[in-house]
Amino acid sequence: YFNTPDDFDKSKNCFCELKGSINDCSCTVDTVDHFNNIKIYPRLKSLLVKNFFRFYKVNLKNSCPFWPDDSKCAMRFCQVQNCDEQHIPKGLIEENENTNSAAFKYTKEAQSSSCSEAEDYNSVLSYLDTSLSDQAHREFERWAKHDEAEEDFCILEHQNKGSQYVDLLINPERYTGYRGESAHRIWRSIYMENCFGRKNESKSLSDFIPHLDLNDMCLEQRAFYRIISGLHSSINIHLSAKYLLSESKDFLDPQGIWGPNVEEFKRRFSPETTNNEGPHWLRNLYFIYLVELRALAKAAPYLRREEYYTGIAEEDEEVKLAINDLLSVVESFSSHFNENVLFSNGVASLKFKNEYKEKFRNISRIMDCVGCDKCRLWGKLQTQGLGTALKILYSEKLNVATESGLWERPHIEENPIFKLTRTEIVALFNAFGRLSTSIFEMENFRKVLR
Ligand SMILES: Cc1cc2nc3c(=O)[nH]c(=O)nc-3n(C[C@H](O)[C@H](O)[C@H](O)COP(=O)(O)OP(=O)(O)OC[C@H]3O[C@@H](n4cnc5c(N)ncnc54)[C@H](O)[C@@H]3O)c2cc1C
Fold first, then answer.
1. Strand pairing partners for 2?
2. DSSP conformational letter for 259
3. Up-side HSE of residue 264: CA atoms within 13 Å toward CB?
4. Residues in CB range of 18: below 8 A, 6 or more apart
5. 3-state secondary structure 306-323
6. Is 16 a catalytic residue?
7. Are strands 243-247 and 256-259 parallel, antiparallel or unpaired?
8. Disulfide-capable partner of 22 in 18, 197, 268, 296 (CB 3.0 to 4.6 Å)?
9. What pTM was estimated for this model as a whole?
């Protein structure tokens, strides 16, 4: 069922089912499989275990803003193991992502405080500062925050009270047993409330947006649906690939044997059990992969300038080199997703873009309703990573900064026009890592099923 459906052949030039020029990309599932499995996956695998990427700051305690909590935290495989503070690199704890980041202390600009030019500059700034009332300062800060948030596709919460570091390596995404009405309500809300869909009382999601109906949607709506569906596929591939094959007898000890469950994968994606939708859902995984891949390519000049600071000098240097290498491979992909085909229709598009943002922000709020902590953790990380990718693709500020050659300058000021927080960067790379792993895992299932 990877290539049996009739229209697979028709759209051989691209697995994207969107209409319009996006269908003209010259990629095939095979091209992406090969590119990912040989070039991207192994690089990400070694990068994402590094300290900079393994600690993710997140708030898992927010209450659900939409309906009463139906949390199933008692499920033992849902629990998130807390992070031992002493394992978190000092550089991350020191970091205040809002203002002077710890990494900034080590940039050339920061080190050059004896430079008279820098002093002059600062004294002018401080003169202006003291002439402002505290009230005005607060207003400016509020405006600046509002301005920055304008481009966000997600609610950023890393500075919220209650956020804490989680070690992703000791809390891998895998089967948790989370299912039933609580899980279905989340998926239904994401698809139905946010996917511009028809009002439909049906309980089955596949009845709600069957593949053929996608052709009646406009490009942006289809893209939105396919992105969510691709994320859904990715999560379900992971739980099938890291399934609980055998439980330990000891109820208090959440150990077990984890591995691929081919039957589970078949049930979730074969045409017979999904009303022929499964293969399309799998193709949507490639679609979201291409979206995030393109975001990395677009942000590459910016990402190359990041410090990836943890305070462990040797590792920080290694990470920078590994990022450079990965970004060069990402940039070398020949059939990148063309983000300009979306929102390219004048004033109506602008309205649509804002609606899109609002809907994605809603999805990040819905993640606070996921009734299993581990699923919530990975759900939040992946939606934040996706939101960051969309922010990169549709950020005017990034365009302006890139066009003005900002990233090529020898020194970049502390607060450039476009900036991502550490949490956004960690989410972006880890979310892409999840998609890359899904494509890799799918190859394994494919081998067994051949
Ligand atoms: C945010 C989130 C994170 C989760 N993380 C985990 C996890 O880490 N580990 C874990 O074990 N479980 C996780 N789950 C639960 C998991 O995704 C399933 O909901 C659960 O296993 C029940 O599966 P199901 O067969 O009932 O179908 P579901 O996956 O719940 O899907 C419901 C319906 O949606 C349709 N559908 C299925 N896949 C797609 C698709 N790709 N595109 C479009 N429509 C589709 C089908 O009609 C299906 O019946 C998570 C759920 C959510 C909402």
1. none
2. E
3. 19
4. 219, 222, 223, 226, 287
5. CCCCCCCHHHHHHHHHHH
6. no
7. antiparallel
8. 18
9. 0.84
Residues with CB under 6 A from ligand 1: 173, 175-176, 178-179, 183-184, 186-187, 204-206, 229, 232-233, 235-236, 239, 281, 370, 374-375, 378-379
Q: Which of 60, 239, 277, 360 has most ligand 1 atoms within 8 Å of its beta carbon, as the pocket-test mutant? A: 239
Helix (H) or strand (E) holding 2, with range, is none
Q: What angle do CA 120, 124, 130 make, to 5 degrees?
A: 140
The per-residue pLDDT string of the chain (450 residues; one tens digit each, 9 = 90 and over) reads 333 334 444 433 333 333 333 233 457 788 888 999 999 999 999 999 999 999 999 998 888 988 887 665 556 677 888 777 778 888 787 655 444 444 443 344 443 333 333 333 333 232 333 344 555 555 556 555 655 666 777 666 655 677 888 999 989 999 988 988 889 999 988 987 655 545 544 555 555 555 656 667 777 888 888 899 999 999 999 999 999 888 765 555 557 788 999 999 999 998 889 988 888 888 899 999 999 999 999 999 999 999 999 989 999 999 999 999 999 999 999 889 888 888 887 777 777 788 888 888 889 899 999 989 999 999 999 999 999 999 999 999 999 999 999 999 988 888 899 999 999 999 999 999 999 999 999 989 988 887
In this predicted complex, what is the ipTM?
A: 0.99
Q: Say how far apart CA 190 and CA 186 lie, in whole Å.
A: 6
375 is catalytic: yes
